[in-house]
Amino acid sequence: MIYLYSMIRVLVIALLLYFLYQFIFRFLIPVSRAAREMKSKMNEFQNQMQQQQGFDPQAEAAKQNTPQPKTGDYIEFEEVK
Question: Which end of the chain is more exposed for a tag (fewer CB within 10 A), N or C?
Fold first, then answer.
C-alpha cells in the first residue's frame, strides 16, 4: 500500500514538472521574446518618425541650456509710410 502511494506521488510530481516545463518553454519564453521584439520595433519606429520630423534630442537639450537674452520693456515699432 505504501509502495503504491509513493509511486502515485512520484507520478503526479513528474506530470506536474512536465506540464511546468511545457508551460515555460512553449508559452512564457515565446511571449517574452515577442514582447521584446515588439518593444524594439516600436522604439525603432519612433526614432524613424523623429528623424523624419527633424527632431534632434541633442539639439533640443542644447537649445534649452543656452541662456535667453533678458527682455526689458518692449516698445512697439510702427512703420511710418
Answer: C
Any idea what the Cα angle at residue 72 is, between residues 70 and 73, rounded to 5°? Answer: 160
- The phi and psi torsions of 31 (rounded to 5 degrees) equal -65, -40
- Whether this prediction's pTM lies above 0.85 is answered by no
**What is the structure's pLDDT at 63?**
66
Q: How does pLDDT run across 35-48, given as a tens digit for each residue?
A: 999 999 999 999 99
The H-assigned helical ranges of the chain are 2-23, 29-53, 57-65
SS3 state at 1: coil
For the CA atoms of the chain, what is the radius of gyration? Answer: 33
Which amino acid is located at 6 in the chain? S
